[in-house]
From TrEMBL:
Keyword DNA repair attached: no
Tree of life domain: Bacteria
PANTHER family: HTH-TYPE TRANSCRIPTIONAL REGULATOR BETI, HTH-TYPE TRANSCRIPTIONAL REGULATOR RUTR
Species annotation: Microlunatus elymi
Pfam families in the cross-refs: TetR_N (PF00440)
Location of the HTH tetR-type domain: 21-80
Coiled coil start-end: none
Keywords: DNA-binding, Transcription, Transcription regulation
A molecular function GO annotation: DNA-binding transcription factor activity
Protein name: Helix-turn-helix transcriptional regulator
DNA-binding region: 43-62
Length: 193
């Protein structure tokens, strides 16, 4: 008679439905690592392996690659909202956090099949509402011109997202840092009369 197999650190224990939230979190973290290091073409099986869950768990949480992409973006928007809603938040800080997320998520930008999808639009609207809330203080402090709108800022973000997907990985950080430098100069100052 053989003894039951001992649990080892390398072997995950199946906790069933009780592990759903932890598995989802592990899959999102693994997706960031895997796609961040291997790029947009990394297989989903690598994400499941990195998260130490079965592929069945991956597909229960994220039936399609697009569902996984959306979940990563949604989590990022949650983080941006938390920043923007905290006391002392400012537009520059929010935009810097967004730029850092974009740089870390370039592979996810490349995987978007359809940016016009309603749920992606809603994520953009959520970011826009936070920008809209912080923009008046930035105007008052002279960081941006009176005529700069939330739509203008969102347009710049969309342009950078497109540029990041086209740039070689070696140039992406420089592009994000260049935009950050431009953000530290007053944007579109009010014209003198």
């Amino acid at each position: 008679m053989t003894a039951p197999e001992a649990s080892t650190p390398d072997r995950a224990r199946n906790l069933g439905p009780r592990a759903a939230a932890a598995n989802r979190r592990a899959l999102l973290e693994a997706a960031r690592r895997v796609f961040g290091s291997q790029g947009a073409g990394a297989p989903l099986s690598a994400v499941a392996k990195e998260a130490r869950v079965g592929q069945g768990s991956l597909y229960r949480h994220f039936p399609t690659r697009q569902d996984l992409v959306y979940a990563v973006f949604a989590e990022g928007v949650d983080e941006l909202e938390a920043y923007a809603d905290a006391p002392g938040a400012d537009l520059r800080g929010l935009l810097r956090a967004l730029l850092d997320q974009m740089l870390a998520s370039t592979a996810f930008l490349q995987m978007l099949d359809d940016r016009r999808e309603d749920r992606m639009y809603e994520l953009g609207r959520r970011v826009g509402r936070r920008i809209d809330r912080l923009l008046p203080a930035a105007r008052r402090d002279g960081l941006v011109g009176e005529q700069l709108t939330t739509d203008d800022v969102m347009f710049v973000i969309a342009m950078l997202a497109g540029a990041l997907t086209m740039l070689p990985p070696t140039d992406r950080e420089r592009a994000v840092n260049r935009l950050a430098v431009m953000m530290n100069a007053p944007w579109l100052p009010t014209p003198s009369r």
